[in-house]
Structure formats: structure tokens, C-alpha cells
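Session log. Operator J.P. requested a structure for one protein chain; no other inputs attached. Running the standard single-chain path with C-alpha cell output.
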Amino acid sequence: MQTPWGDFPVCDAHVHFFSPAFFALLAAQSGQPVEETGRTLDWRIPPSCEDLTADWVRELDEYSVAKAALIASIPGDEDSVAAAVTLHPDRFWGFFMANPLARESAPGGIARVQNALAGGLLQGVCLFPAMHRYSMADPRVRPVFEAAAAHPGALVFVHCGVLTVGVRRKLGLSSLFDMRYSNPIDLHAIALEFPSVNFVIPHFGAGYFREALMLCDLCPNVYLDTSSSNSWMRYQPGNLDLKAVFRQALEVAGPRRLLFGSDSSFFPRGWHAKIFQAQVQALCDIEIAADHAGLILGGNLERLLAR
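Structure written below.
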């Protein structure tokens, strides 16, 4: 992609893959047909994973994005993302959501995690402790880290901080998240114990920016993704803006541990170009070096997930 720093590959670390199974679950929870769910949300429901994969390929092509990490956004939907990676391994990496509290072989359970990583197509395990209401210190979570450690190149994505799911609000569905389990500091002992596993905290910690920076400072295997509008900044003192966020993150974590992400998700919106443009502008404003921009906007993710 042509950028203010020159032409280099841009890779997106955070794209949700809203598969037919995802919409079927939403429809079942809201008690309405899938088609009605799409009309309520004003979103396009993909007829198949193949169609959704083709949509994302066209979208990446339109914006000259080299590659993206696709996230299966419900536990048990790892096959959807694996299918996309199988079709286009040169364009996608596969991440999947797990719920370590589920029965071992249930959707999102530990056996599914182990099988998904062993298959070789999926490289990122996504944990949402506030959503599924568990502590990172819960012994039932430990097998996730052990599974990641057993598969070099696998990473563990842990959502911390504020968690809102707008799609559920639009459908009138409750979201019983528990923010007691959302502090990045909860990862400290785990990241130290599993130094070969790389951990990713999205959205700069989503309101726990200070704590995310502390964790990065203490644990060299912790990365931050830059995704979404980062509206959590309104909680911070001193009128914090994206430029200041990047400055502080670079000071603590350095340019090799920041991963550009857009938090793209649904169609017809597609790839969230405005998020990318805002981050590029912030990096320009702080006059980041070209080689560092290349790392943040794609090089770091390629290095992390290289096999």
C-alpha cells in the first residue's frame, strides 16, 4: 500500500469474521429469523463462509491491504475461519474465540482449542474473560496457555478493559459482562510463566491504558493492537488523544510491539478505512520514522505469525 512513508505491505491484526454461524446464533438468541436479524441491523448476512471470504478478499484488494487476521467471533466457530484461511492462505491468518469454562469438548472448550491449534490453520486463541466471566488465574484457563506454548507461532489475544457489543444492544440482547476480570495486570504472572507465548492486548487496553503499558514494560512477550475508534480515551485524564496514546505506547513498548488493527466486522461497511486513516494521521503528526511505521502497520504482525 502507498503510505506517507512509502510503499509497503499493510496488515490488519483485528478483523471479525461474522460467519453464517455467528448470525444464526444471534437470531436464535433474539427469537427472530436470520433474515429479520439482518434487516434489524442493516447488515448483509453472508449466505456461506465462501461468500464471506470472497467479500473480504475483494475488500482487502480495494484498499490494498496485504493480509488480515480474521477472528471467529463466537466460541466453536473456528471451522469458519479455517475455511477462509484454506481458501486464501496468502491473505488471511486465522484467530478463534475460546471459552475455557465450557465443557472440554464443547464449543470453545479446551479440547477444541487444542485441536484447532494442532490443525495448523489457526494461530490465535482469543479470550474474553469479562464476557465469559472468569479470572485469568482460574486453573481451567491454564490449558489454553499450555496449548499455545506447544505450538510455536501461536499467540493468545486477551480482551481487556471496556467491552461493548453493539450488535447485541441493537437486537435487545443483554450482555452480562463482568469488568472485574478485565484488567491487563491479570496477565502479568502468566506472561512471565509462558515466555515463549506472545500475548496481544487489543485497543491499547480499552481503558486500562496505564495498566497495559505497565504489563508491556514488565513482559517483552506482550503486544498491543491499536484497533477500533479507541473511544476509551474519553475516560482518561488530560484530554488524551490518539497522538498522545501512540507517543506513550512507543515510549514504553517500542515500535516492534504495536500491531495495527481496524476492528472491521460487518458488511456493507466492510474494511474500516476511517480507523486506518486516523491512525496514519496520528503517526504522521508525531513524525514517526518510516521504518517504525512499516513495523506497526504490518511488519510486526507478519513477523509474529510467520511460520
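Operator note: The chain has a mean pLDDT of 94.
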